[in-house]
């Protein structure tokens, strides 16, 4: 069962953790490449700020973004800002998101996100937590997948396994973490079943497109090629 209030508290902690790490940089550090191809750290911070505002739109019944082109242009516009401006924007937009989620509302209602995707309002705080936590890793500042909370790792594997379930490009795939937790995904492509196992952070890294899966073990076939998120 989704506990949106607990997720909001976890999101706040994750945001503070990211801001604390980034506060140790200088302006030159913001312009350094992130782990995401073609994006600097400034791009990642700008995206996090604009995503928070977009989710405020969702909670207030407006389109998440005016258009894909506007979303991308806003990130490019804001990516080269000085560190203090970037961090102030991330904090201010996080506070706006917190205020929007504190307003009375029906958490069981369905809301519309990007590209026609819909979800329960109660799942949006976790979606935002995902944005903050994974993009913290993407900043390449010493915070990695292995540093993510265990609960977060398991839940995001749940989410991504569900996302790829039945996907026409992914064969039937069983996932097993070293601690014994299991998931199933894929099933829309020929082949399989493929068994994939390894540490939970490595499973998450592969599913989320952050690692190539070379640290994982496979049986029954090669490691499936996952479509981009």
From TrEMBL:
Domain of life per record: Bacteria
Stretches assigned to the MDMPI C-terminal domain: 147-220
Gene Ontology molecular function: isomerase activity
Gene3D superfamilies the UniProt entry points to: 3.30.1050.20, dinb family like domain
The name this protein goes by in its record: Maleylpyruvate isomerase
NCBIfam families, alphabetized: maleylpyruvate isomerase family mycothiol-dependent enzyme
Transmembrane segments: none
Keywords of this entry: Isomerase
Disordered: annotated span: 171-196
The Mycothiol-dependent maleylpyruvate isomerase metal-binding domain, residue ranges: 11-139
Pfam families referenced in this protein's UniProt entry, alphabetically: MDMPI_C (PF07398), MDMPI_N (PF11716)
């Amino acid at each position: 069962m989704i506990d949106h209030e607990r997720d909001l508290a976890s999101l706040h902690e994750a945001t503070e953790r990211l801001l604390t790490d980034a506060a140790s940089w200088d302006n030159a550090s913001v312009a350094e490449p992130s782990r995401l191809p073609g994006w600097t750290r400034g791009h990642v911070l700008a995206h996090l700020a604009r995503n928070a505002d977009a989710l405020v739109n969702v909670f207030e019944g407006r389109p998440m973004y005016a258009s894909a082109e506007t979303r991308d242009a806003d990130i490019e516009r804001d990516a080269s800002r000085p560190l203090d401006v970037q961090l102030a924007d991330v904090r201010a937009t996080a506070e706006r998101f917190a205020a929007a989620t504190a307003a009375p509302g029906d958490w069981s209602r369905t809301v519309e996100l990007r590209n026609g995707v819909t979800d329960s309002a109660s799942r949006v705080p976790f979606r935002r937590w995902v944005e903050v936590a994974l993009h913290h890793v993407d900043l390449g500042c010493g915070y990695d997948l292995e540093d993510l909370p265990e609960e977060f790792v398991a839940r995001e594997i749940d989410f991504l396994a569900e996302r790829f379930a039945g996907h026409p490009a992914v064969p039937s795939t069983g996932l097993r973490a070293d601690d014994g937790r299991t998931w199933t995904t894929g099933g829309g492509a020929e082949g399989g079943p493929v068994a994939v196992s390894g540490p939970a952070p490595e499973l998450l890294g592969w599913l989320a497109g952050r690692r190539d899966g070379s640290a994982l073990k496979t049986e029954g076939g090669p490691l499936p090629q996952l479509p981009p998120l």
